[in-house]
Structures are given as C-alpha cells and as structure tokens.
Design goal:
The model has no long low-confidence stretch (mean pLDDT about 90). The chain is an alpha/beta fold. The radius of gyration is 19 Å and the shape is flat. The strands form three sheets. Strands 1, 2, 3 and 4 form a four-stranded mixed beta sheet that branches. Strands 5, 6, 7 and 8 form a four-stranded mixed beta sheet that branches. It folds into three domains: about 70 residues, Histidine-containing Protein, Chain: A; about 70 residues, Histidine-containing Protein, Chain: A; about 70 residues, Histidine-containing Protein, Chain: A, CATH 3.30.1340.30.
Length: about 220
Amino acid sequence: MRKKTDQHITEEILHALLWDARMSLASLTVDCDDGTVTLQGEVDNSFKKWSAEQTAGRIDGVRIVANAISVKPKQQQKDSAIAQNIEKTLTLDTRLDNTEIKYSVQQGRVTLRGKVRSLFQKIAAEETCRWVRGVTDVKNKLIVNDLINNAGEEMMHELQRRFSRDHLLKDCEVRVSISNRVVLLTGKVLHNEQRIQAEAMASQLANVAFVDNQLAVKT
C-alpha cells in the first residue's frame, strides 16, 4: 500500500472537518508532518475542540494529533451559571446513573472528581460537560470503582471475543493484556480508525479503569 503524503492527509482532514456538522462555523488550520497532525484555530465550545481531534484522528495515515485549538465562547458565562448547567446536564444524562460525580468550575475550566462504575461513564461525563455553554476545558479526575475482583483473565477473553466479532477488528493483529484493570492493547492494525475502535470497545468493558493503546498502524 502506497504511503499517503502529508498534503493528502491534510486535505482529507480539512474535508472531513468541513462536512462534520459538529464543527459548524469553526475556523481551523491543519498541519501534518510525517503523520503527526497539529490542529490550530478557535472554536466557541470545548466539545468542538474535542470533536475536531476525534475527526482528525480517524483519518488514515494519522499517527498523532496535537490539539492546539483554543476555546473562546461567544458569550462569557459566570462560573456559577456554568456549574448550574453542569448539574442539570449530568443529572439528565442516563449514561451516568448510579454515579457519584462532584465538580468545580474556575474561569470556565471544569474539574470532575468522584466515582463512576466504568471507564465508559468516565468518558461520558467528560463528553457531556464539554457541551455546556461557557466550558473551555475539562480535567477528568473521576475514579472507576472496582466492581469485580480478580476478573482480569475473564475480562481479557471477553474483549478478545468482542474484537473477533467486530467487522473492523476481526482480521487485525490485536493483542490484549489486563493488569489491575488497565487494558494494554498491542499489535498492528491497517488503519487509524481500527486503532480508535479497539480503544473505544475496551473502554466500554465493565471494570476497566484505563486503556493503554499501543497499537501501531502499518505503513
């Protein structure tokens, strides 16, 4: 397979961002150097910054995304107003049932603390906070509860079964090891989208506290 040029990767990212409904009215620039992508520019909320990184990371040929996008809300919000909206958002998000989430807001920057039942909930809490008007950044310090003791081998086999049934990953060389609820992914995949899919699936597995994604994309 012929290796993509940096210019080709840049063009594909810009095209993907242009057609991404989440990125409406965003003014961004993209630079690519040997597969390392740097995103710059301004957006009006934290979720757009996060979304741009996710969109760029899914483009074939991308190895690393450095997100230097700055967040400048259209209207400045008081921290007290942001906190009230976060409270409502977290309460209404059904993905976050049975969690103990605490938060603080300082100059638009949100810090999450407390306990959740899965890595999936930890990621969901951060994602939903990034939607809140006035939020410029989210620091996620949530802790995943240990719900199942000594289940590392069972978790590993379950994740391997899931990979074998997934249309993107069933033919990939993904190796899984789990220690102290940390999932280590190693091996090689054909596309960056497969690398992202493997990490997403691992994060959704019950009792996982962290995913160390060391999958390499074949060149």
